[in-house]
Write the structure tokens for this entry.
Amino acid sequence: MTQQTKEQPPINHIPSSTFAKDISREPGGEGIMQCIQCGMCTASCMVASKTERYRPRKLIQKILLGKREEVLSSELPWLCMTCRLCEERCQEDVDLSEIFTAVREMAAREGYIPPVFQNTIDKVLEDGWLLNDAYTDFEEDDRDDLGLDTDLGWNNEFVKKLKKKYFEGGAKK
Amino acid sequence: MKEFLLYTGCTTPVRLPGYEKAVELVLEKLGVRLTTMKDANCCGAQYIESVNHVAFAAMSGRILALAEKENMNIIAICGACSGSLKHVKYDLDNNPELLAEVNDILEEEGLKYTGKTQVKHLLQIFREDIGYDAIKSAIVNPYKGIRLAAHYGCHVTRPEEIVQVDDAENPTIIDRIIKAAGGTAVDYNGKTRCCGGPLLAMDEEVGNAIGRDKIENIRAENVDGIVTACVFCDIQLTQVQFGEEAGNKPKIPVITLPQFLGPALGIDEESLGISLIKINPQAILKAH
Amino acid sequence: MTENNEARIGVFVCHCGHNIAGTVDVKEVAEMASKLPGVVFSTDEMFMCSDAGQVLIREKIKELNLNRVVVASCSPRMHEPTFRRVVEEAGMNRYLFDQVNLREHVSWCHMREPELATEKAKDLVRMSVARAAKLENLPVKRVNVLPSTLVVGGGIAGLRATLDIAERGFDVILVEKNSELGGNVGNWTHLFPSNQSGVDVIVPLIKTIKKNKRVKILLDSKVSAFEGYIGNFNVTVKNLNTEKEEKFEVGTVVITTGFEPFEPKGYYGYGESPDILTLAELQKLPPSDTLLVPSTGKPVKKLVFIGCVGSREPGVKGHEHCSRHCCSATAKAAGDLRDRVDEALVLYQDIRTYGSGHEELHRLARKKHVIYSKFPKDNKPKVTVKKGKIKLTWFDVLAGENLEFEPDMVVLSTAMIPPDDVEETSHLFSLTRSGDGFFNPEHIKLAPLTTHTAGVMIAGAAQAAKNASESVIDASGAAAKAVGLMAQGEVEIESTVAHVLPDLCSSCHTCLTACPYGAITMDVEHDPPVAVVTEAKCHSCGTCAAACPSSAIVMYHSTDDQILTMVEAFLCPAPEAEGGGSA
């Protein structure tokens, strides 16, 4: 989540296809070269309609131009809600949500994860589910009144194995 | 009696237990018996999904394998869970390498996924396993003169080729059930748009702006309530109507589909957890 | 029926379904017409152009001995030939027919004022009836069409046209200014959308043509003089090397002089480095497995294409048009060359890969990781050349990024412009040119391959920027037009032409200069010489008649008498006629 706040003399980026090639090799990123920059996705995106900093088409073009550092360290790929309206509308069948998921995975591998994601991941890998801390007596009582089982029976052993295999030493594979 | 394994997901049991109970009662009434899956884990949606696709496949894969062990199919009642399970199933069914890697991990648990398990979202059960005719004939206490807006949820309906629940650009399952129960299903601007829930983590302001947008589009059609089919959407569309930004506008009741359908089928309101619904839904329920 | 002893006029007013009758009271018009002097029959009918309508005209001509027919209906541009044919079949001279436009000129433009529209309709019919009485027989003339064609320009369009015509049994004289046939396509290694080279496409055509005995090929030659009229052109061809001239007589002409690729001096550093070349120059490089940097001979690692060079520049004369072929040609070249280089970029203003198979080329190029970057039209990329190194800077509109690149080779997709001798060609053949510099067709939609010089066709890039496949389509079309004329052996020419009265002509030459079609010459048999109109070239525009200070020119079918009668009929309606407008 770095922000270019230093005022430097403008350094022009040199286009390179390597980053796009890397993304297209990631599971989910295969379709990135199909994008013809028509803009249907951005026109359909609810996030884009509410905040100017997020433009799916622009983000894809930055990937196609090879702006690796900027994209991987940016919060922008994490702003995709995965609502997939863009995918429904894209005429070239580009699966943007999946591409941005692949970008996020790559970013995570290099150590860029937004704190809120990191915290939630840590929680899930600890408890096996998300809302362990939110399940208090009040909620138990409500369930009891409805005749539902109060023991939710979540398994928290499996996730510990996953943590060991996939998440030790950062979010590395 | 058809039998299914109910996968509740993390959120419903804690935040919307009424929805969970209503699903059980309504489906039972319509000939589908549910057993809640035990010893499950989080499906891995959004968070694990974004950082490691193998770990994600393993998490949802374990749930699929658990169902396969019981020789049963899964019903998901949360959009995110439904989306994750269906997506991972699709990946595992079509990617032998990934399947091998996941089964490797599952082997230690005494589990294996071979592709047999089917995953359905609640809406599919209504359309495919129960059918609109059966629903209509089971209505004993129809609604009268109420206008309702259906909100389907993004992960419930998209991407269409993978989840195959309903037409992604023009979904109709909830609308048809509203109609069968005697209500008027109302169309509104931006019906298939997101509720904004998934963005709350990264940008609460924008996420809520998106949710408020949806509420205002619905409000423009003069409805008595909103009917949902995903726990996350239900919570988001409710909470977004509170707080400073929401102002003093009258709150539109948000109710889950089974909690709406239940009373029309003759099921007692209390047992459906109606009193737990945050925005009083009496405007809907008294219209018989 | 014959001359105009006493006019016996038949008036037929058409409803045209609802088109005319919806606004104009056609019955009233027919009723009024029946009382006009000379009218022996007047009626209204649902569709005059239908079988029923045509039969009605024929029957009434016979039954009532009509010798003039007026049909009040749609525009003569629509059905004048139809009705002329009908009256001719009934034995009447076709020029004794007149058509009144009650549709385009009345009902379609005065839809909200039916009463006034009806009055106008009555006025127009009254004027036409008065004119009809003054119409005269005009002989229907035909001219011979010689069974040979002149094809000017031996590029792909010229070759295709030549072959099409020769294979149908007509002689062709193919004139080419260079020492080889094949034009631009023959020089290029990279065509699209298929993988054939220019040579692959051109050589078989040339071989077949050389074998055909009907074709006479004149290389290193140009047309130096051109006279005559449709079916009978006199052509002089000059050999540029020997200066010898040969004369021919042909019936039709097909102009396929093509284009030349723009050499963009002053654009993007062109001329400052041998490594900055046009797409055409790239195509001309000998085929090889490696793409080499011209200045160093080393393999190209970084390649950039820039689009719209010298095209689409508002306000720059001759460079305002889109050259159509370049986006697709660039996509093909970029896709083909991508495998041999480390990076390939296409800098574009827009992407117009419109044709069959073209969008696929675009997608393929992108799939191969060609980077497409859009620049704004008011801030184009800048090129600097320092010590042999090329540096490119530009702004990518869609990413909002300032970019720079140091390519080994820059390829400019430049405009298609007319060849440098296009002015000469247009004068020789009396052709006009459009804003982009290419030749004007007779009508862009309805007659795209013929010109205002009857008997002269244009085809291929000579008509407008287009790719090779499209040029071939044009060529076959133009050939068909030529063959159509030659196969009939003769062609009718309009008799409604200008005619000089030799006794009144004062030899001032005014009409000669005024005629836009070069149809008037001086007849030196007279002393002093008098002007004479070549009827086959006359388009009956009337400019000569208006210009003549001696009133020595008659416009057949639009004589002063005929026109003035109409004016009188409008201003002074005959007492028996009802409805006289405002008079």
Remarks:
- Chain B touches chain A through 59 residues (CB under 8 Å).
